[in-house]
Amino acid sequence: MEKHEKIGVYICHCGVNISQTVRVEEVAEALKSNPEVVVSTTYKFMCSDPGQKMVEEDIQKHGLTRVVVAACSPHMHELTFRNACERAGLNRYLFQMANIREHCAWVHSDVDAATAKAKALVNAAARRVAWQEPLQPMKAKINPGTLVVGGGIAGIQAALEIAESGNKVYLVEKESTIGGQMAKFDKTFPTLDCSACILTPKMVSVSHRKNIETLTLSEVEEVSGFVGNFKVRIRKKARYVHDNCTSCGECAKVCPVRVPNWFDEFTQQRTAIHKAFPQAVPNTYVIDRQDKPPCTEACPIRQEAAGYVALIKQGRFHEAAQLIHKRNPLPIVCGRVCYHPCETECNRGYVDEPVAIQHLKRFALDWEMKHNGRFEPPKIDKKRKEKVAVIGSGPAGLTCAHDLALNGYPVTVFEQHSVLGGMLAVGIPEYRLPKKLLEMEIEYMKGMGIKFKTNSKLGADFTLESLLKQDFKAIFVAIGAHKGVKLYVPGEDLEGVISGVDFLRRVNLGISREIGRHVAVIGGGNTAIDAARTALRCGAEKVAILYRRTRQEMPASPEEIADAEAEGVHIAYLTAPTEISGKNGKVTGLRCTRMKLGEPDSSGRRRPIPIPNSEHELEFDTVIAAISQSPDIACLNGKSTVHLDSTKWDTLQVNPETLQTNVPNIFSAGDVVLGPSTIIASMGGGRRAAESIDKFLNNQPLKDYKTHVVRPEIFRGESFRPHSYAPTYKETPRAPRTHAPKLDPQQRAAIFAEVELGYSEEQAMREAARCLSCGVCVECHECERVCEPKAVDYSMPDEIREVEVGQVIIATGYDIFDASKMFQYGYGKLKNVYSSLEFERMLSSTGPTGGKVLLENGKEPRAVGIIHCVGSRDANFNRYCSRVCCMYAMKFAHLVKDRTSAEVYQFYIDMRAYGKGYEEFYSRILEEGVNVIRGKVAEVVEKKTPDGDKFLNIRCEDTLIGKFREIPLDMVILCNGLQPNKTADKIARQFGLSRSPDGFFLERHPKLDPFSTVSEGIYLAGCAQGPKDIPDTVSQASAAAGRALAMISKAEVDLDPIRAWIDERYCSGCRICNNLCPYHAIDFIEEKKISLVNDALCKGCGTCVAACPAGAITGKGFSDRQIYAELEGILAG
Amino acid sequence: METQEKTIEQKAVQAKEKFEPRIVGFLCNWCAYSGADLAGVSRLQSSPNIRIIRTMCSGRVDPAMILRAFELGADGVLIAGCHFGDCHYLEGNFKTMRRIELLKMVLKRFGIDEKRLRLEWISASEAEKYARVSFEFTEQIREMGPLQLQTN
């Protein structure tokens, strides 16, 4: 295609910036060889008014159809010259810029090479521009809302400025209060204003502005869209305290947790429910709940273990017992015989040994019973008509009955035995769970109005059908697993063979304590141990447990095994019976075989394999088979027309989530569903079933359960911390578990008295102090209890906010340099060496010393050293100057002088007092008698005086007198430099921002546009862009707000029309581009069998253009033809 | 005969000494081009042999453009985009990486050493990296000598 354009080429000297390295005239001359170039000339400053005029006039005079300016980067002045072209009537996109300053003159010293390169670049631009096409800018509406990220002084200022105009602002802050770093300061330099006095009124006015929505505890999760039309997703973490909090502080008084307060730079302790500082905005308490405590999460009924442990630690035993009882219908039982999954998950177990949570629970309840008598059953106000039947009075049945009764349902519990409690009563021996304690639990339930019918056996005395006929609206089947599983070896029907559960039942019910002299117990579970120890107590002379695996695989709890052995039970491992031998129908012995362990089976335990020819005979007169139990479900379906589905293991088939059986109003849980399981798992099932039954009777769908589901084991790596302020496992000091006393083994083996004796108060408090307060809040519910306005809400969820805004101001601020990296200054190791922010908190009246300057030992310092440039102006860390340290060091010096009689030494490199009133402030401090030493400190070490007093010794070079000096001091304050906030990386990615080499966000132009970014509509304020003092921060924030307001007033913005465009004629409909587009901007049009670009979604990256095999896609502004022309130009000549 | 050989060798050495590689750099607007701009503002010397073409994203660079650059006499081609995760267009640089890997396989068939094509991730703040890469790549190409394409 023949093209005849009239191109004007203008080469800029940029003063001498370009012309001293590039022979500009030669470049202009060379361009004249291009026949399309009509004008080719140079000028001192193309961007100046005469320079732009020249272009405009030439367009009109010569009828130029294309313009090339070779000057600086297009990022600098492309817009300037596009506007000039437009003013002269030329379409703004018929202009091209060649970058011969940043990419050529400034980076090369060889004039010949630079000139040659400039020629190539300008030639390329001239060739390219000939192929450029007139384009129309796209218009976009500006949403008048603004998002401000960061609630420090910069964010506050920007938000207030914008709100003043009446437009909407979302102020997002990741902490629980706005105020940022400035809120931590005591005084500000150079005026020595009280920081709080000037900041807090601004914070309060943010909270009063109706059009500022402050989102604390919030972080941006995702950003999409473009200038004027951003969509931002914000996660607002739950505060767990509602806005009706009156900030009375009663909650903090009762909170048992203490952790270091981040706001005080960890120099002061705070409670889990807290307010960062008294003037915090919003003026609402917040609960620091990081991860939920694993003990609590591991419990099937979600008993708040960490909560009562924390209360016991403080000696608040009554509160602890109340907390336990609130959640747990069988607290005394659980305190004695629970399987305690809480201890298995306890984080302390990864340090040394788990906290003895179960013993502590027992202690709290024993204490309560001793001091306050029995628990008073609650008054239940709710009344329901629907009757519910519970079959079985074991842990599952009792829990279900308890929960339903609390909801006002009339509940009747049917029990086949003469005593209540199911397995608790007939399976667990007296020496582990005294019967009178179990009776107390049941009395409590009776007090709640639950009716019990004993000696009522399902299948014999009543059926499911008969219950339904008696107008029970729902039935809970919890008949447990009471049938001993047979050994399936010859001789099992001999006299003297009995199942473990039958034996225990017989003894527990007081039917008979008869037992042989030599007893063998087969099995390795708790039932086997219970049977063996009970056999001893019944008078057996010799009791042996035979187990086919080793002790490691034994399911019984290790403590029980040890107790049994101490009492004289012999355990034979890797031994299995093959036959029970007998004479005259009575047992005489066991034929056994030795086993070895093979590969692990489905349970993960290694499978026992018999060793051939290892059979041997052992003498016994009684054999107790305690290998397992199964439910006796024959009684269920025998006479009833109501049929419940069962599994091949003879357990009931239920929906695992709802616990509903195949009959809609019959639910089931506990051992009859799980097979032989644990008390606490059965209680969890009973609780879930009660919720299901309640939902069912309210005609609600069986979903959205509130009852707890045990969460899978948490992953704990090397650097795992129980909460963010806690040390790692490795760093946590070891403290052994306190063991509760027990009856003497010799003495106890013959009697049924309780073996475990329980903690003393002192022992309990010592043991409870081992708790690591995982997740900070331990859920003791004390704050909830004392809160008058009922503002505390543990169930508050995280909130996801989707907001639409037109512009964004990033004001994420700074963190201070971690001074422990400069180990020579001893920070973190030596006492009385403070970081700048720690010292700010010490100076504050709300800080750890109430504003007094004190040493760690509470004495006033005699000499204080202040070290400048810690982590700043240091090639090892940050090269840049942090700009504020010299002045805050002067402020520190003044305040130390003001509040103590100490000598103050400043160690500086260069004194930078560049702001308004700063030099005067410096002079004033000098006049106050502060010693100023010019030189970098080499090291800070601790030394002792001849009297043995410790002091800090600074070694440095005094460069003004040219000598090394050693100065003894009591206290050292480090002037930590400023560095980008640790969230900067995330923010940069989310908002597509660039960062300068120092890590701060990159501004559009360091001089002319220091508060914009190259991303349109995103502005910077404060230290997010670079270190600066408060006045500069406030100015920049106002400037950013001003720019945002200008955009809002404009209401519409021009967008570069750089977009992909598909020529329908050439599109083959291959759809390669569809999946390539990260914005899903390309749709396949089914009727036409072609793809088309959605302009509103396309961002113009051009990746589809490069991929289109048919060449049907064109990148407007960056078409193939244009790039090829540029390539040809660059490589020509 | 001996002397003749020597002169050929000498000529080759002389040619190498005189040889100034011509390198085309395709730089993405947001990261690499801005990084090169920063090198300019910081007055960090870079190789004059690299001439830069700006594209909005490194993903815009069609492999055919790279082949065309070699055809037009480029001795080396540099593609520079944003680091992974930093792409202004979310994932353009991943596509670039895949395309360049494939193209390198194709280059061999054209008799072009794959080392003549270089892919770099340069952020807007990595002026020093741009400068370093420019010299490294220029010296590498200088060492390899001019690209001689076989034309039939």
Summarize the structure.
The complex is a heterodimer of chains A (1133) and B (152). Chain A is 30% helix and 21% strand.
Notes on the protein architecture:
The complex is a heterodimer of chains A (about 1150) and B (about 150). Chain A is elongated and about 130 Å long. Chain A folds into six domains: about 5-135, Rossmann fold (3-Layer(aba) Sandwich); about 145-180 and about 200-235 and about 805-810 and about 980-1050, FAD/NAD(P)-binding domain, CATH 3.50.50; about 385-480 and about 630-695, FAD/NAD(P)-binding domain (3-Layer(bba) Sandwich); about 485-595 and about 605-630, FAD/NAD(P)-binding domain, CATH 3.50.50.60; about 815-980, 3-Layer(bba) Sandwich (FAD/NAD(P)-binding domain); about 1060-1115, Alpha-Beta Plaits (2-Layer Sandwich). Chain A contains 35 helices and 50 strands. Chain A has about 1150 residues and is of the alpha/beta class. In chain A, the strands form 16 sheets. Chain A has a five-stranded parallel sheet, covered by helices on one side. A five-stranded parallel sheet of chain A has the order 19-18-17-20-32. Chain A has a five-stranded parallel sheet with strand order 22-30-23-24-25. In chain A, a hairpin with a 4-residue loop joins strand 48 and strand 49. With about 150 residues, chain B is α/β, with parallel strands linked by helices. Chain B has a domain at about 20-45 and about 60-85. In chain B, about 45% of the residues lie in helices and about 15% in strands. Chain B has five helices and four strands. A four-stranded parallel sheet of chain B has the order 2-1-3-4, with helices on both faces. In chain B, helix 2 packs across helix 5. The longest helix of chain B has 18 residues, at about 90-110. Chain B is globular. The model of chain B has no long low-confidence stretch (mean pLDDT about 90). At the A-B interface, helix 4, helix 5, helix 34 and helix 35 of A face helix 2, strand 2, helix 3, helix 4 and helix 5 of B.
